[in-house]
Amino acid sequence: MSELHKFLFKGLPVRGQLVRLTDSWKELQSRREPDAHYPPEVRQLLGEMAAAAVLMQSNIKFNGALVLQIFGDGPVKLAVVEVQQDLSYRATAKVVGEVPPGAGLPAMLNVHGQGRCAITLDPKDKLPGQQPYQGVVPLSDEKGAPLQSLSAVIEHYMLQSEQLSTRLVLAASDETAAGLLIQHLPVQGEGNLAGATHAEEDPELADAFNRIGILAASAKREELLDLDAETVLRRLFWQEPLERFEPLRPRFACTCSRGRVGAMLQGLGREEVDSVLEERGEVEIACDFCGAHYRFDAVDVGELFTAGHQQQPGSGTLQ
């Protein structure tokens, strides 16, 4: 079963989290049509993104969705993971062209240096005129050198955009997506992605974070993927006093619905929807996240555009 474990290092301004997505990750992959499976390199990237996004969402106090997006100029045009407050998540990617065997992040998304990573916090109950908070960083360091891994990109993001020293180790296979996050505690409580700041630097405390970060970085891919959380934490931090909390249960879930698809069609306009009806006899929309199919015939479309028909709440956009 998928689990997320939170822990603190007693007496130190350092927190940690370990996530292992197992059943939920396999369910997410099973929703794709057999002829639409992603290449293994893309599956690994999406698995690492899912683990990272769940870790980040669980680290903040926020009533809404966290959306992690990577977009660029390689064969992978877009990869998206959305995590709700209850740690339900979904993911999808848009691949155009061939992904080279064994391709890493630069070859998939940053071929000409145009790749970007965006983290968006989308409030569940927006106030009038309120916009989601979004931070965007390039998939390159300050000198323009391509970052080689998703872990490096997110560490760079947290340091540049949120002033949080972070160590992140990610791994993914078709069976498991896992991640280990170690972070300096912000000054006030849990903080959030939009305004957390460094704890006051103290040589002894800074050394503690560096020491724990080195221990975390020593985690092997096979350990994160094959061993249970108890064993991983014991192997890495057996000399450190940990305060553990009850594990949380991430799960796969999609927020698409017939009402949201109907709202999207209303947004397209009657003329465009009627042209699809005339050509195909019905309008069929498939959700890229979960594979659900929504069909609207002429009667359904007529009801959508009947005067006084109320548009369903929520986003009508399916990535």
Largest sheet: 6 strands, mixed
Tally of DSSP helical segments = 10
What would you say the CATH architecture of the largest domain is? 3-Layer(bab) Sandwich
Number of strands: 13
Distance between the termini: 28 Å
- Helix and strand pattern: EEHHEEEHEEHEEHHHEEHHEEH
Q: Which regions are unreliable across 5 or more consecutive residues at pLDDT < 50?
A: 187-200, 310-319
Share in helix: 25-40%
Which structural category do the helix and sheet elements fall into?
alpha+beta
- The first-level CATH class of the largest domain is given as Alpha Beta
What's the CATH topology label of the largest domain?
A: Hsp33 domain
What is the CATH homology-level superfamily of the largest domain?
A: Hsp33 domain
Shape: elongated
How is the largest sheet built, in terms of strand order?
7-6-3-4-5-11
For the CA atoms, what is the radius of gyration?
Answer: 21 Å
Our estimate of the beta-strand percent is 25-35%
Q: How confident is the prediction overall: mean pLDDT?
A: 85
When the domains are counted, the total is: 2
Key terms:
six-stranded mixed beta sheet; elongated; CBS domain Like; alpha+beta; 319 residues; Hsp33 domain
Task: Write the SSE topology.
Elements: E1 3-9, E2 14-21, H1 23-30, H2 40-58, E3 64-71, E4 76-83, E5 88-95, H3 105-109, E6 116-123, E7 133-138, H4 150-162, E8 166-172, E9 177-184, H5 203-217, H6 221-226, H7 229-237, E10 242-244, E11 251-252, H8 258-268, H9 270-280, E12 283-286, E13 293-296, H10 298-304
Parallel strand pairs: 5-11
Antiparallel strand pairs: 1-2, 1-10, 2-9, 3-4, 3-6, 4-5, 6-7, 8-9, 12-13
